[in-house]
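INTERNAL AUDIT FORM
Audit reference: QA-55
Scope: verify that the stored structure record matches its stored sequence.
Auditor: D.O.
Record contents follow.
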Amino acid sequence: MEPNTNLNFDRYVPSNSDWIVYKSEYIMSNSVEMDMISDKVATMGLPEVFYGNNHIMFINSAKNLLFEMSALDAVALSSYKIR
């Protein structure tokens, strides 16, 4: 959300796999965070319940691949204007 926000990630390594998964889980965004998010996201409106600091990353170093998704990106991409 803000550049200075420190996120903590949990690491999971499935057995017999080249993938590593990192995820962060945080509580719902409060009203101040929701106001900041709504200014950044060009959608008709935000969901009533939003977990703005949640992230997930899938990493496969053998294939040199990183896939990251965040709640903020998911809501922003739901807007046809941005896609």
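Auditor finding: record pair retrieved intact. Residues 31-40 form the longest helix (10 residues).
Action required: none
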